[in-house]
Design brief:
Blueprint: H1 5-77, H2 83-96, E1 100-107, E2 121-125, E3 131-135, H3 147-155, E4 159-166, E5 172-182, E6 188-197, H4 198-215, E7 227-231, E8 237-239, H5 251-254, H6 264-273, E9 278-284, E10 287-295, E11 302-308, H7 309-360, H8 376-421, E12 436-443, E13 451-458, E14 461-469, H9 473-491, H10 497-507, E15 518-526, E16 531-537, E17 543-545, E18 549-551, E19 571-574, E20 580-584, H11 586-589, H12 600-610, H13 616-631, E21 640-647
Antiparallel strand pairs: 1-2, 1-6, 2-3, 4-5, 5-6, 7-8, 7-11, 9-10, 10-11, 12-21, 13-14, 14-15, 15-16, 16-19, 17-18, 17-20, 20-21
Helix pairs in contact: 1-2, 1-4, 1-7, 9-10
Length: about 650
C-alpha cells in the first residue's frame, strides 16, 4: 500500500497556491485602494516643499525690493535741498536699482513752499530706458488723506502697498513698498514709494513651475498641470499663469459662482486671506485639485499651488500596476516550482506527524521516529524530543501561573471598586438646592491610582478638594485613601482650608517612610456670599470660567508630605453668579499623544472657549472627550481627574 506522501504533497501544493492567490488578490486590492492615500503623503511633502520654495522665492524678491527701497531712501536723504535735487536723487538711485520701475516721494504740507501744498515728485523708467519726471499730486487727489501716507507718518514703519496697474507711468502691473524719508534733523518729511514690476515676480514663479514640471515628468502638452499663483489681501490675483487675470480678477470670481452644496473653493480662499497655511481639496475650473497655500510675511498676501488630483494619484496607480505585475510573475513561478519542492521537503514530516498526534493527545512519552538527515527536520525532531521532556512541567507551571494571575486581577478589580466607592458619585448636593452645581470624574491609568477628589456640605457651605499622589498603583491608592479620609474628618470641624492642608501635611511625618507626597487643592465655597476660600499645595491652578477663562492665582505652596513644618497660606476671592471653577490633575495637562506632545494648558482654554456648555457635567465630559481624541491611540499614562463647580447664586 502506497503511503499518502504524494497525496499530501499535492494537497499541500494546491492549498499553498490557493492561499497565495487569495493573499495576493487581497494585497493587490488593498494596494489599489490605498495607492492614492499612500502616495498622498509623499505628494503632500513634495508639494509642500514646492510651496516653501515658491514662498521663499517670492519673499526673496520682496526682500530685494525692500533693500532697494532703503538704498533709494538713503540716497535721497543726502540732498533734500531743492525739488531738482530730489528729482536728480530719484533718477540716480533708480539707475542704480535696475529692477525698480519707478519711485516717488509724497512730501508733507508745504515742504517746498514754491511747489505748493502738495508736492509728489516721481521718476519712472520708460520702456526705452529713459527716466520720466512727473509731479503726481493734484488737488483732486490729496495724498495726505491716504491711509498709507498717514500710517507711515504716524508709525515711521515701512509698509507694503497693495499691487496696482500703472496706466500712466510705467504702464505695467506694479507692487509698491513705502518707507519714511527723514530730514537732516531726523523728522519725517515725506513718504518714499518704490515700484517693482509684477512681471518680474510672475516670471520667477513660472520658472519654479517649469522646474517642477520637469522633475515630475509632466508633459508640456498635459491638459492639467500644477501651477502657482499669488493673492493680495483682498483676494485679487497678483501673479497667475494666465496674466489676463492679474489685478483684473478676484479669486472668488475665478471659478464662477460657488454652489451652496460645495463651499470648499471659497473655504480655501478664506483660509488664504486669513493668513493661514495648509492644504485644501476643491474643484478648480472643473478639475478636482488640491490647493497648497501659505502666507507671505509682512504683506498680507498669500501664495498658492494648484495640483490636479490626477497628478497625485498617478504615481500610486503606476506603483500598483507594477506591484500587481510582479505578484503575477511570482505566482507563476511558485505554481511551477512548489509541487516538486513540497514533495521532496515534506516526506520526513510524515513520520513526525503521527508522533505529534500522540503528543497532542497528552502522551508526552510517545516514541519519536529516527531521522537520518542532519538538517532542519533533524533539528526539529531533536527539539521535539526536548519539548516532550519539558512540556509537562511547563503545563503545570502555566496552570499555576494562570490561577495566580487570575486571582491577582480579581483582587485589583476589587481594589479599584473599593477605591472608586470612596469617592462621591451622587452630585446632587441636597434636594431643592439650586445655588450650586457640581460634577466630577476619575479615570485611573492602572487598575488603581493615586488621584482623588471629594466634597461635602457643612453648615450650608461646600467643602471640596482634589489631589494627586505621586506614583501609581496600590501604594498611591493607599495614600490617597488616607488623605481623603483625613479631609472628610477635618472638614467636619475646621473652617479654614489652610488649616486642613496643614494638619494633613503634618500627619504625613509618621507614615511617609517611602517619601511619597501629594499635590492638593482644598476649597470652601459659601453659596450665600460667593466667597471662595482655598489653599493650594503644589497642585495645578484651577480654571475660572465665566465670560472670560483664566487660571486662578494660587500661592506656590509645597505638596503635602514634602516638608511637615511648612506654613501653608490660604487665599480668598468672591465668585460672581454664573462662574464655574474647574479643578483637575496633571493627568489632563500632561496627557500625551503618540508624538509625546502634551495636551497642555493652552488646549484646556481652547476647549473651554469652543464649548458652549454651562453645566459642569457637560463641561467635564467635553474635556474628557477632547483628551481622548488628542491621545488616541496612545495608552493613558496618568490618572485623569476633573471636578467642576458652578456657582449660581441665590435665585430670586
Amino acid at each position: 500500500m502506497r503511503m499518502p506522501i504524494q497525496s499530501f504533497a499535492g494537497r499541500l501544493t494546491r492549498r499553498i497556491l490557493l492561499l497565495w492567490i487569495l493573499v495576493m488578490t487581497v494585497i493587490a486590492a488593498v494596494i489599489f485602494i490605498k495607492a492614492e492615500s499612500g502616495m498622498s503623503g509623499m505628494s503632500d511633502n513634495h508639494y509642500s516643499d514646492v510651496l516653501d520654495l515658491t514662498n521663499e522665492k517670492v519673499q526673496g524678491i520682496l526682500r530685494v525690493v525692500e533693500v532697494s527701497a532703503v538704498n533709494v531712501r538713503e540716497g535721497v536723504e543726502r540732498d533734500l535741498s531743492t525739488p531738482d535735487a530730489v528729482y536728480a536723487s530719484l533718477e540716480r538711485e533708480l539707475g542704480l536699482n535696475p529692477h525698480l520701475k519707478g519711485c516717488a516721494i509724497a512730501f508733507v504740507d508745504n515742504y517746498f513752499p514754491a511747489e505748493g501744498t502738495w508736492f509728489e515728485p516721481s521718476v519712472t523708467r520708460t520702456k526705452d530706458g529713459r527716466f520720466e519726471r512727473r509731479q503726481l499730486s493734484v488737488p483732486e487727489q490729496n495724498y495726505h488723506d491716504s491711509p498709507v501716507f498717514q500710517r507711515t507718518l504716524t508709525t515711521g514703519a515701512d509698509t507694503w502697498i497693495d499691487p496696482h496697474r500703472d496706466r500712466s507711468g510705467a504702464k505695467m502691473m506694479l507692487c509698491a513698498y513705502s518707507t519714511p524719508v527723514r530730514g537732516a534733523e531726523g523728522r519725517i518729511v515725506g513718504v518714499l514709494r518704490v515700484d517693482a514690476s509684477l512681471d518680474w515676480m510672475t516670471a520667477q514663479m513660472q520658472e519654479i513651475d517649469r522646474i517642477v514640471h520637469e522633475r515630475d515628468r509632466i508633459p508640456d502638452d498635459a491638459e492639467h498641470q500644477p501651477y502657482s499663483f499669488l493673492l493680495d489681501r483682498e483676494g485679487d490675483f497678483i501673479a497667475h499663469p494666465d496674466t489676463e487675470r492679474m489685478l483684473e480678477q478676484n479669486y472668488f470670481d475665478a471659478d464662477g459662482a460657488v454652489s451652496a452644496k460645495d463651499t470648499s473653493f471659497a473655504h480655501v480662499g478664506h483660509e488664504m486671506l486669513a493668513g493661514r497655511q495648509g492644504r485644501g481639496r476643491t474643484v478648480i475650473e472643473g478639475v478636482p485639485s488640491y490647493v497648497y497655500y501659505a502666507p507671505i510675511e509682512k504683506t498680507g498676501w498669500s501664495v498658492g499651488i494648484v495640483v490636479p488630483r490626477s497628478a497625485v494619484v498617478r504615481p500610486g496607480i503606476l506603483q500598483g500596476l507594477f506591484t500587481l505585475g510582479m505578484m503575477l510573475l511570482g505566482m507563476l513561478l511558485i505554481a511551477l516550482a512548489s509541487p516538486l519542492m513540497i514533495r521532496r521537503s515534506t516526506k520526513p514530516l510524515q513520520y513526525l506527524a503521527q508522533s505529534a498526534k500522540e503528543v497532542a493527545k497528552g502522551d508526552f512519552n510517545t516514541p519519536l521516529p529516527e531521522i537520518r538527515h542532519q538538517d532542519e527536520i533533524g533539528i526539529l525532531r531533536d527539539s521535539f524530543a526536548d519539548m516532550q521532556a519539558s512540556l509537562a512541567d511547563y503545563v503545570r507551571e502555566l496552570t499555576a501561573t494562570t490561577a495566580q494571575k487570575a486571582s491577582m486581577e480579581s483582587e485589583l478589580s476589587i481594589a479599584r471598586e473599593i477605591q472608586l466607592s470612596m469617592l462621591p458619585t451622587d452630585f446632587t448636593l441636597s434636594p431643592g438646592r439650586d445655588d450650586l452645581e457640581i460634577h466630577a470624574s476619575l479615570t485611573p491609568a492602572k487598575a488603581v491610582g493615586g488621584d482623588f477628589y471629594d466634597f461635602l456640605v457643612r453648615d450650608g457651605r461646600l467643602f471640596f478638594c482634589i489631589g494627586d499622589v505621586s506614583g501609581k498603583g496600590v501604594p498611591s491608592a493607599l495614600v490617597m485613601s488616607i488623605i481623603s479620609t483625613q479631609f472628610r474628618s477635618l472638614s467636619s470641624t475646621e473652617d479654614k482650608p489652610e488649616k486642613i492642608v496643614s494638619v494633613i501635611n503634618a500627619s504625613s511625618k509618621d507614615r511617609n517612610a517611602t517619601m511619597m507626597f501629594a499635590t492638593l487643592f482644598v476649597g470652601i465655597l459659601d453659596p450665600d456670599t460667593g466667597v471662595l476660600s482655598y489653599c493650594n499645595a503644589g497642585h495645578n491652578a484651577p480654571v475660572l470660567i465665566g465670560k472670560e477663562r483664566c487660571f486662578l492665582k494660587v500661592e506656590s505652596n509645597l505638596p503635602v508630605g514634602v516638608e511637615t513644618e511648612w506654613k501653608y497660606k490660604g487665599q480668598q476671592l468672591t465668585l460672581a453668579p454664573g462662574k464655574t471653577l474647574l479643578l483637575y490633575t496633571d493627568g489632563l495637562t500632561e496627557a500625551e499623544n503618540g508624538n509625546h506632545d502634551q495636551f497642555g494648558e493652552r488646549r484646556i482654554l481652547d476647549v473651554l472657549g469652543k464649548s458652549g456648555a454651562a453645566d459642569p457635567e457637560t463641561l467635564v465630559r467635553e474635556l474628557a472627550d477632547a483628551v481622548h481624541a488628542f491621545t488616541e491611540p496612545a495608552e493613558q499614562s496618568d490618572d485623569l481627574t476633573m471636578l467642576a463647580i458652578r456657582f449660581l447664586g441665590k435665585r430670586s
